[in-house]
Amino acid sequence: MDMEDMGVRHPVAFHQSGSQTSTAGEENTVKKLGSSPGRFANATLVRLSEFLNAGYKKGVRPVKDWRTSTIVAIDLMVYSILNVDEKNQVLTTYVWYRQSWTDEFLVWNPEDFDEVKQVSIPTTNVWVPDILINEFVDVGKSPDIPYVYVTHDGLVRNYKPIQVVTACTLNIYNFPFDVQKCSLTFQSWLHTIDDINITLMRSPEELREDKSVFMNQGEWELLHILSNYKIFSVDNDDYYAEMKFHVVIRRRPLFYTVNLLLPSIFLMVMDIVGFYLPPDSGERVSFKITLLLGYSVFLIIVSDTLPATAIGTPLIGVYFVVCMALLVISLTETVLIVRLVHKQDLQPPVPHWVKYLVLERAPVLFCIHKKHSLCPTLSSQGTDLEHFKDNNYGTAQCPLHHTCEIGRRLSHHDREGRLIGLGLPPSRDPAPPVMDNILHEVTAIRHFLEKRDRCREVAKEWLQVGYVLDVLLFRVYLVAVVAYSITLGTLWSVWQVA
Fold it and tell me: N or C: which end of the chain has fewer CB within 10 A?
């Protein structure tokens, strides 16, 4: 019986002694690894480092079961927007990148190492996932962080700042009120989702609104960071995990509004004010030409400020071109009006259809007041002419006797002309040759004054036509400028608010 009891209890005793031997062996191993001679004899971190590096294979994915996928948690914090190159479609940012994963081979008991729960070890001594950014186009000047933090349960934390130079599709049509959305895609370049999977370190809501480290004093303002997780396959065989961060930024338009839009608006306002110069004045043409030249110089100066791409033109560039076209149209209208009212004595009479449309219908339809006082001197000269005619015909009392005599001679000459026209012989009252010469001179003066009066009446009508057309074209030009400005202002306001 005792022999049977001994036979039954012997394996148990043997197992207990074996486990005690194993535990003692691990303790001896820790002590052996930590028994560094000399000055490192009592260094806990040195003992821990030797314990972690003993037999570690950094080229092998750190899992005990090869079927287990290594989950890498990543996080992104934008620190600064360094450059936005619209021509080359490149975005340069400075970000704080964080990633962590569990290394099953970097585990220890804090009680064996003076309650040390985390330690920093060189990055070159541990396995690191091959997670890259797909949009990389250039290697930025990023500082080298040679260490990672490892906790006692195997959690490895790799935190580092990165200068990211990435390709980005930049839409500059709304410049300078544009909002850009650039993506940073993180994925394992080689390992499939069975080996490496990616997740977020924080919730998407926290990531979206986090602007704690962003330098908010530059040209660009960070709106938010969106995240999107996706599994994709290239050949429908191997599947990969990717985490895409959408960095949404907005340009601050104050600088461009002050230096680009306001000068252009001021020049257009001065062009509108130029219409108040008299239409028959040559100063208006000189004023308009000066504005056009000034706007051309302004466009040459600001051409380097506007972003340039091969696929599109910003709306502000179209705005400048249209403003230049409006200035040219304004100058053309001024030239036509000046040509219409200049040297009216050489103009033919105003056609009847022009009188009907411009002088009768247009003022009524467009509420244009007729300008009756265009030529007050002409009216006074016409009155003098009528008075001169009356005196020539002898119908007014003349204070001088010889003037009345001339009138009587002129009446006698007209009477003789009527007798000849009726076929009767003229009266035989001979007139001296001197009086005949005076009579011819007076008749020539009369015809000249009548012709000049007719020319001035034609000039007066053309001035009235030019005035009405000038007011009409000015109103059309003003409506076009105001409508164009309201349209662009509404678009830019909507883009700014959005």
Answer: N
Side chain identity at residue 75, one-letter code: D
For residue 165, give the nearest of 181, 182, 179 by alpha carbon.
182
CB atoms within 10 A of CB 34: 20
Cis peptide before 176 (omega within 30 of 0): yes
Q: Which of 93, 112, 103 is nearest to 30 (CA)?
A: 112
Based on C-alpha coordinates, what's the Rg of the chain?
50
Q: What angle is formed at CA 363 by the lines to CA 362 and CA 369, rounded to 5 degrees?
A: 160
**Each residue's pLDDT tens digit, 152-177:** 999 999 999 999 999 999 988 888 88
Q: What backbone torsions phi and psi does residue 92 show, to the nearest 5 degrees?
A: -115, 120
Confidence label for 305 from pLDDT (cuts 50, 70 and 90) = confident
| Residue whose structure tokens are 């480290």 | 213
Is residue 385 scored above 70 in pLDDT? Answer: no
What is the sign of the dihedral through the CA atoms of 4, 8, 11 and 17? negative
Cα distance between residue 396 and residue 407, in whole Å: 10
Distance between CA 111 and CA 350 in Å, rounded?
113
Q: What are the tokens at 215?
A: 């330098």
* CA distances from residue 214 to 38, 136, 223, 255, 317 in whole angstroms, order as listed: 48, 21, 11, 21, 31
Q: How far apart are CA 282 and CA 29, in angstroms?
A: 105
Q: For the stretch 437-468, what's the b/e string if a residue is b when 16 or more beta carbons lie within 10 angstroms of its beta carbon?
A: ebbeebeeebeebeeeeeebbbbbbbbbbbbb
**Could you read off the pLDDT of 361-380 as tens digits, one per residue?**
667 666 676 554 444 443 44
**Which of 412, 253, 280, 259 lies closest to 334, judged by CA?**
280
Give the side-chain half-sphere CA count within 13 A for 284. Answer: 23
Q: What is the mean pLDDT of residues 94-123?
A: 94
Structure tokens that stand for 359 in this block? 């002088």
Say if CB 184 and CB 76 are below 8 A apart. yes
Greater confidence (424 vs 112) lies with: 112
Q: Are 327 and 295 in contact (CB under 8 A)?
A: yes
Cβ neighbours around 40 below 10 Å, total: 14
- What pairs with residue 409 in β-bridges? none
**CB-based contact 72:129 (threshold 8 Å):** yes
Burial status of residue 206 (CB atoms within 10 A of its CB: 0-12, 13-18, 19 or more): exposed
Burial class (CB in 10 A: 0-12, 13-18, 19+), 174: buried
| Residue 238 token pair | 């191997």
Q: How many residues does the chain have?
A: 498
For residue 107, the SS3 value is coil
Determine the Cα–Cα distance for residues 84 and 287; give it in Å rounded to an integer: 41
For 127-175, the DSSP string reads ----EEETTEEEE--PPP--EEEEETTSEEEEEEEEEEEEE-----TTT
